[in-house]
Design goal:
- The protein is globular and about 80 Å long.
- The chain has 545 residues and is α/β, with parallel strands linked by helices.
- The termini are far apart.
- Helix 2 packs across helix 5, helix 15 runs parallel beside helix 22 and helix 20 packs across helix 21.
- It is built from 22 helices and 22 strands.
- Strand 4, helix 7 and strand 5 form a beta-alpha-beta unit.
- The strands form 4 sheets. A 9-stranded mixed beta sheet has the order 9-22-21-20-11-12-13-14-15, sandwiched between helices. It has a 7-stranded mixed beta sheet with strand order 5-4-1-6-7-8-10, sandwiched between helices.
- The protein has 4 domains: 156 residues, 3-Layer(aba) Sandwich (Rossmann fold), CATH 3.40.50.1000; 92 residues, no CATH class; 171 residues, Rossmann fold, CATH 3.40.50.1000; 76 residues, Alpha-Beta Plaits.
- The model has no long low-confidence stretch (mean pLDDT 90).
């Protein structure tokens, strides 16, 4: 049934979106912290100030890993304790001891009172499942299965990635997206085809960092602004305000034509049809309402991440024919003299470096596995490095299997291999290529297929892509998202990973001659020629600043 929908999976934050355990958690933390603060008052003469939900739990504890939550609250009272060990007795005066005491109190409360549920969440989940959408959940707690058992709702979720699973798989905690990505993969889906639903800043930021197609925030604590700041695409006050149709419309949205919407958005396509906007109380992140002029006149520094093929050059019949024009090269050179510029490509890093030939900029090759820049700046993904022998073997296999196919082109790379079928005319041959690629990936394992424009790419099955490479560069260069206007320009389906990383904290621009193409990008430029025009506009505004 889900072939009628543009998304396949929805991942819920179990702790706050499904069960009303926040009250139980708050009461447990309050009892533990108040008890400890009273001890310090009696022993150390420190004035007692009680732990409160609004001024303490929401600010210092909610949505954070438990040990960090304890440390954060204690620091707010100028208290520092040793971390201790996870096995510490609840009477030990350590961070772990306080956490363990809270866990015991929570379990006791759960047995006495049971957890309540958000009925509107259950209604949405049941509707999703009825329409063939797969549903999973994540939790920062070890108690989530006990919670679900207590309310007889274990059947709702096909997968649950809780704290026990996270520790076993060594997954990073929120605001990284590891647990959400793991849940989507368990359901046979990818983040870009999935939605995340959460009500905390760390939860929605994890959805954005994980590259999810929709990050839906639920502002139950009057925290709409914070949810938007941390990456929520849409915000509602309750899940009764959103439907499967609204979610699907989001996944089918189209980028705004950049030049038509440069000064106002009147010609921009609506994200939702008018009836949805009229009937539903859905708020859209203000980032999506920005015009091109507003972006270029913020006074922020600019950072540009640029795809090569189809963005700086038109798509060519063969990769070696995609040559940068002298004018485009000169334009990018001038741009790089004023702003930070990186070329981000699926090509081998050395190849795109030779094709562009501009010094003083950053080059990202092999979909982010290989990065190099000025001043000895360099990174090669270590897990990808281990797969080089396997990729070499796959290349040999492909050459042997596909040697009789007319028009097929095998592009050899260090970390991957691309099978181009742009020149393949026969549908039978295309089917043969598709099956051959799929069979090799299934046979050897540890690999995945990336589908681009008339190309299949086999690369390591590592949670790394162009978007994560961009985040790595921003962190390595110590460029805060808040102080720069980051742009990503790309044309391929592989660039959607980068679009998802940039939107709500920068500007994503799709290069396509198809105005009806769905994409997570903010704006649309129709060709490399329009890209050149965009660069000229940027340079003109840069001269005025």
């Amino acid at each position: 049934m889900n072939e009628y929908f543009a998304f396949q999976t929805v991942i819920f934050d179990l702790d706050s979106m499904v069960t009303k355990t926040a009250n139980l958690h708050t009461h447990s933390w309050k009892a533990v912290f108040d008890d400890y603060l009273k001890l310090r008052e009696k022993r150390n003469g420190e004035p007692f100030q009680q732990f409160t939900y609004r001024h303490d739990y929401l600010i210092y504890v909610d949505g954070k890993p438990r040990y960090k939550g304890v440390q954060s609250f204690l620091a707010s009272r100028n208290i520092q304790l040793p971390l201790g060990n996870p096995s510490d007795s609840p009477d030990r005066e350590t961070v772990c001891g306080i956490n363990n005491k809270k866990n015991i109190l929570f379990d006791n409360l759960l047995q006495k009172e049971c957890a309540e549920v958000f009925t509107t969440t259950i209604t949405l989940i049941e509707d999703l499942k009825k329409h063939g959408i797969r549903v999973g959940a994540v939790s920062s707690s070890k108690d989530c299965h006990n919670v679900l058992k207590s309310i007889h709702l274990e059947h709702l979720f096909e997968t649950i990635v809780d704290r026990i699973v996270s520790q076993k798989l060594n997954l990073k905690r929120k605001p990284e997206g590891d647990i959400l990505v793991a849940a989507a993969k368990n359901l046979g889906s990818l983040p870009e085809s999935s939605a995340v639903v959460g009500d905390t800043s760390s939860g929605v930021e994890a959805g954005r960092n994980g590259g999810f197609g929709l990050v839906l925030g639920v502002a139950r604590e009057n925290n709409k602004k914070a949810l938007f700041q941390h990456g929520a695409d849409l915000v509602v006050s309750d899940l009764a305000e959103i439907s499967i149709g609204s979610i699907n419309n989001w996944f089918l949205r189209k980028p705004k034509p950049y030049f038509l919407c440069f000064e106002n958005l009147k010609r921009a396509p609506l994200i939702f049809p008018p009836e949805h906007l009229k009937e539903k109380k859905i708020s859209i992140n203000p980032f999506y309402r920005r015009t091109g002029k507003a972006i270029l006149t913020t006074g922020k520094k600019l950072t540009f991440f640029l795809d090569y093929d189809g963005t700086l050059t038109p798509i060519a019949e063969s990769p070696e024919l995609a040559i940068l024009t002298p004018y485009m090269k000169k334009t990018v050179e001038i741009l790089a003299e004023i702003h930070t510029v990186a070329i981000v490509s699926g090509r081998l890093r050395e190849d795109v470096q030779n094709l562009v030939g501009i010094k003083g900029i950053f080059y990202v090759g092999s979909h982010g596995f290989d990065i190099e820049g000025p001043g000895g700046f360099s990174m090669v993904h270590q897990d990808a490095k281990k797969t080089i022998p396997l990729i070499s073997h796959i290349i040999k296999q492909l050459k042997m299997i596909l040697k009789e196919i007319n028009g097929v082109l095998i592009e050899e790379k260090k970390f991957s291999v691309a099978v181009h079928y742009r020149k393949v005319k026969s549908l039978t041959d295309l089917q043969f290529i598709t099956e051959a690629v799929q069979n090799l990936v299934q046979k050897y394992g540890g690999l995945r297929i990336l589908k681009g424009k008339k190309v299949f790419e086999i690369l390591p099955n590592i949670d790394w892509d162009k978007g994560k490479a961009i985040r790595w560069i921003m962190n390595a260069l110590n460029i805060p998202w808040e102080s720069t206007e980051a742009f990503y320009l790309g044309d391929d389906t592989t660039d959607e990973y980068a679009f998802r990383t940039v939107i709500t904290r920068g500007t994503a621009i799709l290069i396509s001659d198809d105005p009806e193409r769905a994409s997570s990008a903010d704006f649309l430029l129709q060709s490399p020629e329009e890209v050149k025009k965009f660069f000229e506009q940027v340079l003109a505004f840069s001269e005025k600043c």
